[in-house]
Amino acid sequence: MATPAKLGFIGLGAMGFPMASNLISKSAKGSQLFIYDVSEASMSRFAEKHPNSTVVCKSPAEVSSSADILFTMLPEGAHVKSVYLDPATGVLHDGMAAKILVDCSTIDVDTSLLVLDAVRQSKSHSGVSFFDAPVSGGTLGAEKGSITIMLGIAEQHDPVYPVLLPLLQLMGKHIVPCGKPGMGLTAKLCNNYCSGLIALATAEAMNIGIRSGMDPRLLARVFSSSTAQSTICDTWNPVPGVVPAAPSSHGYQGGFKVQLMAKDFGLAMQAAAKAEATTLLGPAGLDAYRKAAQDPNCYDRDSRVVFRYIGGDEKWQEKL
Amino acid sequence: MATPAKLGFIGLGAMGFPMASNLISKSAKGSQLFIYDVSEASMSRFAEKHPNSTVVCKSPAEVSSSADILFTMLPEGAHVKSVYLDPATGVLHDGMAAKILVDCSTIDVDTSLLVLDAVRQSKSHSGVSFFDAPVSGGTLGAEKGSITIMLGIAEQHDPVYPVLLPLLQLMGKHIVPCGKPGMGLTAKLCNNYCSGLIALATAEAMNIGIRSGMDPRLLARVFSSSTAQSTICDTWNPVPGVVPAAPSSHGYQGGFKVQLMAKDFGLAMQAAAKAEATTLLGPAGLDAYRKAAQDPNCYDRDSRVVFRYIGGDEKWQEKL
């Protein structure tokens, strides 16, 4: 970006903080970032890190009064609703300057489309765009700027795309236009539904092998060269000691937390119900992630901890 | 192989025929293949194809009386039991010449270990080895000689391995020593359990996306660059029109038939029960493959036809 920009970021949590940090530190010199978070401590920490470019605001409304392009990264649909629509403090208000609103939260599609509708229907917001843009790649990816951003936009038709793309590229590596509003969220929820089931299937299959006397490293090699190959098996293998760099080999630390998988999986099941799509494996998958998220031996660990949840033998190496 | 060999092959079905064909046609000049099949027509067809090297036998016992190394490729455990152990016609008998017995059938581990036990306990068979060696890669792979062979052997310790390896390489591309007897079957069943669940999970996830209005080609691209990546998604995608070369794009013709997946999945569930391994997704997966195998719209199709079985929209392209 050659021209200094007036940007906004609301929600400086585990993902939002490093994303906003990349956004402003890689933007053109002289750019400003208007920030808001419910935690004043987070805002102070951010302002200390970027003292010359941060403007701390008192509400989402204050951010949208100043920033031209605004990003939000919030935990759940209810937060997105209130951040955008609250009559007193919300982003949408008559004095809004922002023309492009991008919600990076992973929430249900309906809430996202409800906000889009509010943006479209309000007369004072003509020319304002709103996009769903959930991300994947975890906190480490957010720090490195290597996340994937799934954007609910029709690449070919939307004049905003060329404006937005270079900004998104400051925060992420793969920017995937997903066709139309809501499709960014749909893509993310479908991906996590599938990925969650692959992890559980791989954990179960490897557990059968281990308990039958097979070395799981050999078994993973068979999978990788055959039809059970997956990125989960190759990079995020649920069995400790099979992939040295995987969270499972380090007490399931880091990675994608099991309670977030439970949340996303639940949202995917909602989307499936709404679309009247059959989910034969879904109920057992959702039950496993929800229960694992409540299990003190699994909570806050990488979601591939489902291997532990199903009673997988983590000390297989001692028995070979 | 420089020296002519006396080889045997029992079971000239969809897989056995092309495997035996590769075995003899790539063997050293002057090698002989002693064959047996319940179908005389299959034996005649094979003898016509390899007139100078085939010896048609009247029973498994006759094959093992002449061949030094013998392969079997049979549909189910019951066939393996009778082909090896039948007192009148079975492979194991006092006049047996064969020293290396290799069963390539996909059967339950218990039956395989039972045959191994019979080989080991019989006094007249000292020095005879028996291995489980199931294959993957389908009939096309068997014809091309590109199958993977999972061998129940400890590579480092077994003196038979260097004798067997060059012969297996005439029939397959990847030979994977799996550690010990029964582990070839264990590896194959675990792989197909996992692969069957990945296919169903991918079908369900893509169906959610399609019914929510997303282009499945875009969705597959998201999966491939994210945590839902798998060989099933990239090469065997269950949704017609996503991967042009996949069976799904050609009326689910070719590939790995759904009734065989149902069989292997059932064997994997048996293995899991025996090993007391938890299968949270297994029951729903087994039920889906068994019912799909009985559905006239799915029977005899590639197993990724589960997309059709769950009511997936195969005409999504007309609605974009």
TrEMBL record, chains A, B:
Residues 6-178 form the 6-phosphogluconate dehydrogenase NADP-binding domain. Keywords: NAD, Oxidoreductase. The keyword Metal-binding does not apply. Pfam families: NAD_binding_11 (PF14833), NAD_binding_2 (PF03446). Residues 182-302 form the 3-hydroxyisobutyrate dehydrogenase-like NAD-binding domain. It comes from the Eukaryota. The keyword Kinase does not apply. PANTHER family: 3-HYDROXYISOBUTYRATE DEHYDROGENASE-RELATED (PTHR22981), DEHYDROGENASE, PUTATIVE-RELATED (PTHR22981:SF81). This is 3-hydroxyisobutyrate dehydrogenase.
